[in-house]
Design brief:
This protein has helices spanning about 45-55, 100-105, 120-135, 150-165, 180-200, 210-215, 235, 240-250, 260-264; strands spanning about 1-10, 20-30, 35-40, 60-65, 70, 80-85, 170-175, 200-205, 220-225, 225-230. It is an alpha/beta fold and about 260 residues long. It starts with a strand and ends with a helix.
Amino acid sequence: MLDLVNINMTFYPGTPNENHVLHHLNLHLDNGDFVTVIGGNGAGKSTMLNIISGQYFPESGQVLIENQNVTWLPEHKRASYLGRVFQDPMQGTAGDMGIDENLALAARRGNRRGLSWGIRKDERASYRKTLQDFGLGLEGRMSTKVRRLSGGQRQALTLLMATLRKPSILLLDEHTAALDPKTGARVLDLTRQLIEENNLTTLMITHNMREAIQYGNRLIMMHAGQIILDIRGSEKQALTVEDLLHQFEKASGTVLDNDRMLLA
């Protein structure tokens, strides 16, 4: 479903601020893989997602989605392949549009937009049913401007929008980090529900080691622009935070000193 082949990425090359972010990065995802990604600041996690999404082009290497080389496709031309939820709940929705209008935008992702913009009656009924299944109480507020929603409601809506048209790959970039713990846990439950129901191939970045262990069938840890741990199957199921810290120290040759990860 996804292959990153020998990806290299350098910011500000040839300047005093030159920063080698990704070093010969290789990653293969099978259809239905739910991979949690963890690592300290500067490990290259978000840069990897931005290269997959087309927000950045790599310095060298290839990005293949469903065996199609999309390395140099701009972001808007990859829209039909990808769904993405950002850390900021404000980033994935149009605040001055209604809930139904946002869902209609998501439903048309990757399609040519003609003159028939209006939302059909059957579409609206489908959106209402989907929202009702979510259990957030939004099915009766279809015309409400999204900016009036809480952060958790808005992020849940963004998640629904990202998966409304089943994407080849779902990218989750610390999508619960800006939410309070109770709301974040609810959004994570919804995330797992949508991924399992639709068998979505998913990359989820998190700073929380317990979440990285609890969710998904595979865990990768990044350090200094490379994948240093790739844990799956029964090994992941038996993993503890203490095991993960020990394996990080062994693989990287250094002690994890990221306060955000350790405190989480």
